[in-house]
Every structure is written in C-alpha cells, then in structure tokens.
Specification:
heterotrimer; A mainly alpha (about 290); B alpha/beta (about 325); C alpha/beta (about 325); A: about 290 residues; mainly alpha; 10 helices; about 70% helix; C: about 325 residues; alpha/beta; 12 strands
C-alpha cells in the first residue's frame, strides 16, 4: 500500500503566514512572557498578596527592600499584587470570553442557518438584550448575589455573547450560500450535523480574530467594574482595581499607577497585534 | 515594420511559495489589420504576456524582453508615456466588462472622459463621437442609452459598450482577452461578427487571447499555441487546423468535442494536468503529458523551428522543413 | 430499462421584492412547465443560455429548491411533498456534481473526509477500516491516487477537485446523477478527461444522468437525449442525433448555428447572420412564445398564444407554432 501523503491544511498555511508577521510574533512572545510572569512570578518574591510591610508604606521601587515595584498606600508589595492582579484579569478575560464564545456560536450559527422566523426571533432576543443597560443588570446581580468572582465571569460573559452571536450569524449567512453546504444537504446531512461539521469549523477563523478583540474588552470591563467598586473583592485584586488605587496616588506615588497600567496596556496591545496578524494570516489575499 | 513585435518575453511573479515563471521566452509579431490568436489553457501564460505589453502586471510581477510597438520600445517607457498609449493607440477589452467599466459613472461620462483626456476634444464633440461609436457597435437608441449606467445594460450590451470605449480613439492595436468567454453562445456569435466587421472597418491589429478553438478559427488569421509560458506552435489559421504538428496542438484538437464529427465516440483526452509554473520541468514543458516523448524531451527545451513555410513548431520531433 | 425519473409540469417560482415601498412582489418563473422521463443507464442533456432555468431545474429535482407545482417521481415515489426525513433517506439514490470544483468542497476537510461523509450518514455502522477502503477504491475509480487521501482541496487542480466531487457523489452508488455544468470551469484538455470519466462510470454503474451545460458540443458527446430550454420553458426535446441533425425549433437551430466550429474554412463559409437581440429578463418574459422577440419565423400568433408542448415524432416533443420543416 502506498504511503499516504500528509496534507497541508488551511490552518497550517495560516500559521506559516502568521510566523512571518514580525509584529504578531513579537506580541505573542511578549504575551507569553507576561503569562509566565503572572503565573510563576509571585514565587520569586518573599512578599505575599496581602502582607503589610509596616516599615515601607508608599515606598518607591527598590532592590534592597525587595519591593521591586514599590509598595502601595497600605504597605503591600506591588510586584506581587500586580502579578496576582494579572492572574485575575487574564482569567476573567479568558473565562468570560469562553462563556460568550460557547453561547454566541451556538446561538448565532443556529439562527443564521435556520433562517426565517426562527432567525428573526432569535436575533430579536439579542436586540432586546443589547438594548438593556449592562451596568444596571450587573449591579442588580451584585446586589442580589454578592460580589462573587464566578458571578463576574458569568455576568460579563453573558453580555459579550451578544456581539459574538451577531458576528457568527453574519458569517453563517455567508457560509450558507457556499456550494459545499449545498453539497452537504444533497448528501443527506441533517441541519445540526451541517452546522457542527461544516459551518462552525469554517467560522473559527473569524471567531479567533474576534476573540483577540474580546479578551481585552472584557479585561477593560472588569476594570471599569472595579472602578465602580463592584469588581473583585479584597484582598484579591485585578489590574483594574490596581489602576483605580494607583490613580488616586498618582502624584505622590506614581509607581503604584505605572506598573499595573503598564502591564494592562502591554497586554491589550499584544492582543490587538495578534488579532491583526491573525486576520491577515487567515485572509488568503495573495492566493 | 510590424505593428507589434515581441522578442524573448519573460514574465515572473514573486510569491510566498516561490517564483512563478508565467512566460518563458515568448516571441511573435503582429501586422496591421491582422488578427493573431494566442491559444492556451490556464497556466499557459497568455494573459500575463499581454498584460506586460501594457505594463499592467500586478505589483509582484516583473518582465524582461523587447516589446516594440510601431517600432517604438514599450518596455522602457515611463508611466506618463505609457498612459498616453493605453486607451489611445493600444486598447484592451476583457472577459468581464465590469473590469473596464466604472459602475458609478454613466456611459457618457466614461466615454467622453477618454476622448477629452487623450485627444483634448471638447465635451460636445466628444459626446457626438461617443454616440457614433455606440452606433457602430450596434447599440440601439444610442443617443438615449448613453446616459445610462453600465448595470442597466445586459451582458452582451455591456460587452459592446466596452468595445466602443476601447475603439473611441481609433487604436492601432486592440488586445482582446477572452472577450466572449463569459457570454451566452448566441450573444458570443454576435460579438464575434461585430469584431470581424469592426476590424475590417478600422483596419486595426487584434491580439486575441482565448482558450476556445472555435473562436480562434472564427476570428484568427494566425494562431500561436502556448503551453507552460512558451510557444508550441505558430502558423496561419488554416494551416494550423489542417496540419497540426505539435503533440499538444494535436491533443487539444483531438480532445475538443465538435458538432461536425460523429457523436458518442470517446474523446481522445490528453492525460495528466497542466504544469505548475512554480516548478517547470527542465526540458519541454509538455513532455510529462506527451505520448510521443523521447529521452531528450525531458532534458532539452526544443527550439522553435520552421517545419513548413510560415509554420513554426517547438518540438524535438520536428526539425526544419519537415 | 426501467423508468427511473418521471417529471411532469414542473414549476419553480420565486417571489422577489418589488421595487419601491408599496410595489407588489415580482414573480420569477425560473422553471415553467418542464416534463421528461429518464431511464437507468441513459443520459438526458439539458442545454440553454442564461436565465433558461436549467440550474434551478437541477436543484428542484433534488429538492434543494422547493418546487412550486408539478410532480417529480423517483421510481414511482412522489418527491415534491415528501416529509424531510423520508427525503433525506432518498438522497442516497440521487446525487449532484456542481460547476465550481473548489466551491463544492469544504476547504477545512481532507479529501478522504469529504468522500467518506456520505458513508458516515448512510452507513454509520461501517467500521473505520472498511470505510477507508471504500474511500480508497472510489478515489482510484475516478483517477485519483489513493496516497492523496489526507490532502486538502486547495492542494489540487480544478480537474482533480471535480474528480473528488464525483467520487463523493458516487460513493453510495446512487441511481441518478445530476451534473450541473460539471466541466464549464475546467480547462479544455481536462474537460475531455472528465467527460470520458463520466461516460465510463455511467456504463459501469448503470447510472441515469442528467447533464446540464451550455456547451452544445459537450452535451452532444455525452447525451442520449437532449432538451433545449429557453426562459424556463421547454423548447424542444429529442433523441440526440435527431436534435442535432434536424432540429424543429428555431431556437435550437439558432443555437446550433451560433457555435463557432474549430474549422476556419467552414467558419468563413458561414455567412448566416447571428441571432439578433438579447435574452429577455426572466422577470418579464415576452407574451405568448418567449422566443418570439428574436425568432426569424415569428408571426402574430406567436405573440398572442404560448405554444403548447406536443409530441413531434419518435420520442420528440416540441413547443412551437411554426416549427422548421413545416
């Protein structure tokens, strides 16, 4: 039997193109470093998340005190807090995005594929939810159920799926017209099977790009919630919460704003560059 | 002096997958009032060759070789000089009329613009000449229809409008790239007849690119068959169809179903696939698919030789005067 | 030879939104009264120009587009009002090959997965090895190397992709194969390969084929009977040789006269003027006979009354008031 040749899938092609994009690769490397740092970094420091160093309140960064990012107004080490904040922000970003992805794809692909009245109904639901004031909804949840971290994930995810659903529906409408979907119908496939095997895999490119935009968006939403005092509860912290605290100390202790804001900005930049690179890599223009 | 003379044209494209060698040493000449048909399938290089004449290649393309139009070298002209020639002395029509027509402007505006730009004609005179040309391409009610937009015309009519626009300045050379491929067969017949009549009237040279042997038999005076960016065979149209010599030409003629041969017999198909222009074989481009190949066909590219007066073949099976 | 497909008075109408706010929706009669029969092992060629409805007809037969009126019977079973579950089961008997070889293949799936898909749907209990074996056999049958099974569509040429489409369509050994312009997008030298392939497969498998194309010469090559359509209506239906040698309908004659022959001497000798006028829009077909606006033999009756499809000799049908030879 002759040996089977391995094919070169479109994803592999896209990956090759992405590797040639220097900005995207740099961003990927930087993001990987940030993730590594927030995951393993806190072990490097002798300080813990909520430990108060009474001798060094609001001190600038220094090597002797081993407060590499300085301390905040209460005396907690900012290096550890920044990294822990990173863990929280990134986790919120990923989990909330994952929630919105699952709901959004299922909703959007089904509405787009089935079309007609089902589509109309499903998208009207999206429109109505869209019109509802997000903050109001979240505040209500917070008031009723307390500032639970899980609740924040779900709340943010539950709002973001609307955008995802709209995008997925649009893509599905376009994909539905393509001949290979018609061929699948002619082969006797049922609608759920067509959606799962033909529509969704061909959406993932667009979804991937959109995810790189959603994650920063979600992180910023969490930051905003923190600003309102509705974010994660002490002693846990997030970049948004740190930025909020740091902004208040901006003139006297600029480092308490600089580090978390710097990390936040760098991360958002990275996601955006990666998203740009992905979009170019997946758009087969010079084929 | 020949109207158009191309010598040793090479066209290359830089792509992520490597260098695409679209045209590899193409040479031909075209006289005034003559129609030369460039016949080939996809990957033969015929479209890229003519785009390089007008310097219309994509950004990642480059060409070398000599292209002389009325004795003047075109390949070294700068953009301004080229612009004066395009649409004026050399015009081009395409498979899809919407390539040449702007959907947002009326036909009148587009046509008068050409005349105003190239010949400095005033608007009223330009309009008169535009209507005249639309009538020459047999568009009924030309003086009314000229105010319409391209999408308001049917497919065949749009093709006529494109032809009219191309002929406004009475070019000496018309390049037609698959002008009837996208048309229905009854409309195609009309356009072919129209092109024939217009050529007689305006006495221009036509460079006709097509894959359809019927079209080239209908319009062509001479035919050049291309494969893998090179010429296989070149002859007067009667001679080529009656005595095809190159195995590719013979294969092509044998594989096309015709209305005038017995039906139901199997077609004599050419086996294999068109060559990849990224990796052309060292010898004859057609060798992998040729039923008559010899050892040297895989190694040495055959040179163009005259097998009969006016009939050139690039094949190791055919030498001079065979 | 059993009667496999029986179509009668098939109509497909689309409602298009009217122009302007209060305008009534416009009706497009894409297929307007088509009827024919087809037996196993035979090919019916369908020719016509843009707007003639041949592609819509193909899709209506397979239920990919709903029929507005008329009947389509596959081995005696009426398809037009069938519940979706039953229709899905019948799909294994009728398959389709599309015009654009790349577009009809899912770019994210390998060739093997594409060909295996119908097997997964209709023979789910087939083991992986057995399924792979069927795929391999089919690939070789259509002229593809089995070693290519893990490649993706974009790595193949147009002709090879069309072979993949044919393999997918035939892997379940359907009785009927509808080919919608299967070679129009292919190079000339590849067209011949695919036409030969289809003819061989038909002989081998006893397929009934519906071959839709605009190229009259290709249709003549492969068909036993040919139907000519114009603006959704049948102009003429006849056995192949009868249609091409002695057409009765003026439109058929005009079509045949329009095709340029690969023979320069005969082309020069042809002096008949080509058919004038443009194809009318299917949205506003001419009154009476749809062809009367361009027909050289048209008279006042042609404008007033639509000609009825009638028998015109051995297995021939014709819709014309003043046919050729009368």
């Amino acid at each position: 039997m002759t040996e089977e040749i391995r094919g070169r899938s479109l994803w592999q092609d896209a990956l090759a193109r992405l590797k040639r994009n220097r900005a995207a690769v740099t961003a990927l490397v930087l993001l990987a470093l940030i993730v590594l740092l927030v995951t393993a970094g806190p072990w490097l420091s002798p300080w813990s998340l909520d430990e108060i160093d009474w001798d060094h309140i609001s001190t600038p960064p220094s090597l002797e005190t081993r407060h590499w990012f300085g301390t905040d107004s209460v005396g907690r080490d900012l290096f550890v807090r920044t990294l822990h904040g990173g863990r929280m922000s990134l986790m919120v970003g990923l989990v909330a995005t994952a929630v919105s992805l699952v709901i959004g794809i299922a909703w959007g692909a089904t509405a787009g594929y089935l079309g007609g009245r089902v589509d109309g109904f499903m998208m009207r639901v999206v429109d109505i939810l869209y019109a509802m004031p997000f903050m109001f909804f979240v505040i209500l949840l917070m008031v009723f159920f307390g500032r639970d971290i899980l609740l924040i994930f779900v709340a943010i995810g539950a709002i973001n799926w609307l955008d995802m659903a709209r995008i997925v529906r649009g893509q599905t409408l376009a994909l539905k017209q393509r001949e290979f979907v018609e061929a699948a119908v002619a082969c006797g496939l049922t609608a759920p099977r067509i959606i799962a095997r033909h529509i969704v895999p061909n959406l993932l490119g667009v979804v991937a790009v959109y995810v790189t935009l959603t994650i920063p968006q979600v992180i910023l939403v969490e930051s905003f919630l923190s600003f309102l005092g509705l974010g994660v509860q002490e002693p846990a912290t997030s970049w948004g919460a740190l930025v909020n605290e740091g902004a208040q100390e901006m003139e006297s202790a600029p480092w308490s704003l600089l580090f978390p804001a710097g990390f936040l900005a760098a991360t958002l930049f990275c996601f955006n560059f990666i998203g740009d690179g992905l979009r170019d890599a997946l758009d087969p223009r010079d084929r | 002096m020949a109207l158009l003379e191309v010598k040793d044209l090479h066209v290359r494209f830089r792509t992520n997958d490597g260098e695409v060698r679209a045209v590899n040493g193409l040479s031909f000449s075209l006289e005034k009032g003559e129609t030369l048909g460039l016949v080939g399938e996809s990957g033969s290089g015929k479209s890229q060759a003519v785009l390089s004449i007008l310097q219309l290649l994509a950004d990642n393309g480059s060409f070398q070789g000599s292209i002389r139009f009325q004795g003047r070298e075109l390949s070294t002209l700068d953009r301004k000089a080229m612009n004066r020639i395009r649409g004026n002395r050399i015009a081009m029509i395409f498979q899809d009329p919407m390539t040449a027509l702007n959907g947002h402007l009326t036909v009148e505006r587009q046509m008068t613009e050409v005349l105003e730009h190239h010949e400095g004609v005033k608007r009223r005179e330009a309009r008169r000449r535009a209507i005249e040309m639309l009538e020459a391409v047999q568009i009924p009610d030309a003086h009314k229809r000229i105010r319409r937009y391209p999408h308001e015309f049917s497919g065949g009519m749009r093709q006529r409008v494109m032809i009219a626009m191309a002929l406004l300045c009475r070019p000496d050379l018309l390049i037609a790239d698959e002008p009837t491929t996208a048309l229905d067969v009854t409309v195609q017949a009309q356009i072919l007849r129209l092109l024939r009549d217009l050529q007689q009237e305006f006495h221009m040279g036509i460079l006709l690119i097509t894959h359809d042997l019927g079209v080239v038999a209908s319009l062509g005076d001479r035919v050049l068959v291309m494969y893998g960016g090179r010429t296989c065979e070149e002859a007067a149209v009667d001679e080529l169809f009656r005595h095809p010599r190159h195995p590719y030409t013979r294969g092509l003629l044998g594989s096309v179903p015709r209305l005038d041969t017995p039906a139901g017999e199997r077609l004599r198909a050419i086996p294999g696939n068109p060559p990849s222009l990224l990796a052309l074989p060292p010898g004859c481009a057609f060798a992998p698919r040729c039923g008559e190949r010899m050892a040297q066909c895989n190694e040495v590219q055959p040179a163009m030789r005259e097998a009969a007066p006016g009939h050139g073949v690039a094949c190791h099976l055919h030498g001079d005067g065979e | 030879m059993s009667l496999l497909l029986e179509v009668r008075d098939l109509e497909v109408r689309f409602q298009l939104p009217g122009e302007g706010w209060l305008a009534k929706p416009k009706e497009l009669r894409a297929v307007d009264g088509v009827g024919f029969t087809l037996e196993a092992g035979r090919t019916l060629g369908i020719v016509g120009e843009s707007g003639c409805g041949k592609s819509t007809l193909a899709r209506a037969l397979l239920g990919l587009v709903p029929a507005t009126a008329g009947s389509v019977k596959l081995e005696g079973e009426e398809l037009t009002a069938l519940p979706p579950a039953r229709m899905r089961l019948l799909r294994r008997e009728m398959q389709i090959v599309f015009q654009d070889p790349f577009a009809s293949l899912d770019p994210r799936m390998t060739v093997g997965e594409i060909i295996a898909e119908p097997l997964r749907v209709f023979e789910p209990r087939l083991g992986r090895a057995a399924r792979a074996g069927r795929v391999r056999t089919m690939m070789e049958r259509v002229g593809l190397a089995a070693s290519q099974v893990n490649r993706y569509p974009h790595e193949f040429s147009g002709g090879q992709c069309q072979r993949i489409g044919i393999a997918r369509a035939l892997v379940l050994r359907p009785r009927l194969l509808v080919c919608d312009e299967p070679v129009s997008a292919l190079d000339v030298s590849i067209q011949a390969q695919i036409v030969n392939l289809l003819m061989d497969l038909q002989q081998e498998m006893g397929l009934a084929m519906l071959f839709i194309a605009h190229d009259l010469a290709v249709v003549r090559q492969i068909s036993h009977e040919v139907m000519v359509m114009y603006l959704g209506r049948m102009a003429e239906l006849a056995p192949r040789d009868a249609l091409y040698d002695t057409p009765f309908h003026p439109y058929t004659r005009a079509l045949l006269d329009s095709v340029p022959l690969p023979d320069p001497e005969r082309e020069r000798a042809r002096n008949a003027a080509p058919l004038g006028g443009d194809l009318p829009s299917p949205l506003s077909p001419p009154t009476g006979c749809a062809f009367h606006t361009r027909c050289p033999r048209a008279r006042s009756r042609c404008r007033e009354a639509r000609p009825v499809l009638q028998a015109a000799g051995q297995r021939r049908q014709l819709a014309c008031h003043f046919p050729l030879g009368s």
